[in-house]
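Subject: Radical SAM protein

B.,
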Amino acid sequence: MLFKYAYRMATGLAPNVAFKAAYLYGFKGMKAIHAYKKRLANDVLYPPFMFVALTNTCNLRCQGCWVEKVGKARHMSTDDLDAIIESGKRQKAYYYTLLGGEPFLHKSLFDILERHSDCYFQIITNGMFFTEENVARMRRLGNVTPLISIDGMEEQNDLRRGEGVFAKIMEGLDLLKRHKLFYGLATTATGKNMDEVMSDEYVRMFIDRGAMYLWYYIYRPVGEEPHPEYCMQKEQIVEMRRRLLRLRRKHPILLIDTYWTAEGEAFCPAATGLGFHIGPEGSIEPCPPLSFAKERVVDNDRDMFKSINESAYLRGFQDFVKDRTKGCVILEHPQELASFIRDHGAKDYSTRDALSEIDSIKPRHSHHLPDEEIPEDYWVYRFLKKQVFFGMGALG
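Prediction pasted inline below.
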């Protein structure tokens, strides 16, 4: 598998794209993780990467999405964006995941990519904005990897994302392949699509389309319309883990999860300080589904290091999670989580009553599987999870 993947990288990527992925994502990512571990040892809190939501606007209305897409449109200011990235650079953090809403609706997207050419950007997108012009600009810049959200084959995907979305995405993937970009697919595993998205057929489909990685998430019932019918049962999560390890040995594509360490133990990126989420208004939040913050980018004269490292709320969230689970407190302890947020007086930046939404969630299993942990059984993935920024895991 490893040699086949190396061959795909060598023949399927434009030279500047391959170089920047290796240097900015691989080499600098490893340095960022080492710096993070050093900070961790000294009780200094600053993550090696950030989720940055550029806007709350979107052209789709996906079932189970927690981002509010009606009411006032919000777009992150370029001053805030520059402050986030420059603060990160001072801490050897050069990797940023840009999301929304739909990040391609932010008018300064390409300006940011070009201005910070020494950083690497992952753009989580619905794939509806891949024009010849946009894709050619991404290839020229080389420091960007699109991550396209798709949740199964045509029927399952369009059930959540809208009729015709699957076909439009496939057109975009062909364009990305033709321009030899380093790109991936983001798939949310649900109770309805788990068997399909963890199949050989699903993985091979994207290899044939030129994808170099496939990033899996587990569905969380949050938002104004949470659609709990998409939730996974514990048995499905265990089976997903088993299939993930089997698929990793079989196919020449990186299969990334956001949930398990090299030892197969669950972890929460926010609880370990690996990554936080910043909303369109500059709110510094624990993770994308939790739109509650005490600090903003503009605080402390935009000194992000000071705002994060001295945040009683973010540090308190870490302790709150660690005292209860290695997994996801949104799924396992929603009512206690709502009380924690209230007690800290965190502001809701969702424009909804997101706190009441969390309070009404029925507790469920997350990826925390005590006594059923399944360690990584392939040395490549063990190394990546221990040493390199990889699926928000580098905990060796």
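The chain has a mean pLDDT of 92.

T.
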